């Protein structure tokens, strides 16, 4: 609210938030966050102790229902490790969810799907800044993934029975430094080209908006070179 000029100080923001029923702040670890001003607001009489209790009660009730205050041995999830989380059953379920969530906008001449039985001897090129950059495949608020479980487009395509070549063209999504020769060399010698473009948190995230919907940097040029 301070950034939107609804209030002028963190103290005013704390009071307004409490009066509105807010009981949780995403503070980004700031020591001088908004809700640290609640004791001062209470001392000044801007809020009452009963209001403070009313705001805190549902928050801690939820935490208790989630078992946050239970001994670890009472929590069945505390015994889970990556052998369970990354079990074949769960990984297959993740694969199924990924396959079923694809959005296919156009499929000229039935290019997709790529059938494994048709690929032996074929040359497949995967190009673009998202082709083999694990850190760029996760959006804002994503967890920190274990590298060995990340399948980039390049890594996934290399499991197919085809001769796969790779060319990033540019190292980051901003694509300020673009190697046209690298992309043209890979795409020109291929029977099938997979182009991996986009934005990612390096370009846009909460608090970091784009000014337009164009592909960043030289990405459009990369796409045009791959098509040509």
Number of strands: 3
Radius of gyration: 25 Å
Estimate the global geometry from the Cα principal axes: elongated
What is the CATH architecture term of the largest domain?
Answer: 3-Layer(aba) Sandwich
Q: Report the uncertain regions.
A: none
Descriptive overview:
This protein has 228 residues and is mainly alpha-helical. The protein has 2 domains: 10-74, no CATH class; 102-226, Rossmann fold (3-Layer(aba) Sandwich). The chain contains 8 helices and 3 strands. A 3-stranded parallel β-sheet has the order 2-1-3. The protein is elongated, with a radius of gyration of 25 Å.
Question: Could you give a quick summary of the protein structure above?
Answer:
With about 230 residues, the chain is mainly α. It has two domains: about 60 residues, no CATH class; about 120 residues, Glycoside hydrolase family 3 C-terminal domain (Rossmann fold, 3-Layer(aba) Sandwich), CATH 3.40.50.
Mind sketching the topology for me?
Layout: H1 10-20, H2 38-44, H3 49-65, H4 82-85, H5 88-100, E1 123-127, H6 153-157, E2 163-167, H7 180-188, E3 192-195, H8 219-227
Parallel strand pairs: 1-2, 1-3
Helix pairs in contact: 7-8
């Amino acid at each position: 609210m301070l950034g939107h000029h609804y209030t002028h100080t963190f103290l005013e923001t704390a009071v307004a938030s409490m009066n509105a029923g807010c009981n949780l702040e995403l503070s980004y670890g700031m020591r001088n966050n908004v809700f640290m001003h609640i004791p001062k607001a209470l001392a000044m009489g801007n809020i009452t102790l009963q209001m403070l209790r009313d705001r805190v009660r549902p928050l801690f009730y939820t935490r208790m229902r989630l078992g946050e205050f239970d001994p670890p041995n009472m929590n069945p999830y505390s015994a889970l490790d990556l052998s369970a989380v990354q079990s074949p059953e769960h990984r297959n379920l993740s694969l199924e969810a990924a396959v079923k969530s694809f959005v296919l906008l156009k499929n000229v001449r039935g290019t997709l799907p790529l059938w494994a039985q048709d690929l032996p001897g074929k040359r497949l090129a995967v190009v673009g800044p998202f082709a083999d950059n694990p850190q760029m495949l996760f959006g804002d608020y994503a967890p920190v993934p274990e590298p060995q479980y990340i399948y980039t487009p390049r890594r996934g395509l290399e499991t197919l029975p085809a001769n796969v070549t790779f060319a990033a063209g540019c190292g980051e999504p901003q694509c300020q430094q673009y190697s046209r020769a690298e992309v043209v060399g890979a795409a020109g010698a291929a029977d099938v080209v997979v182009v991996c473009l986009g934005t990612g948190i390096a370009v846009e995230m909460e608090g970091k908006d784009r000014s337009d919907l164009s592909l960043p940097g030289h990405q459009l040029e990369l796409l045009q070179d791959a098509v040509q």
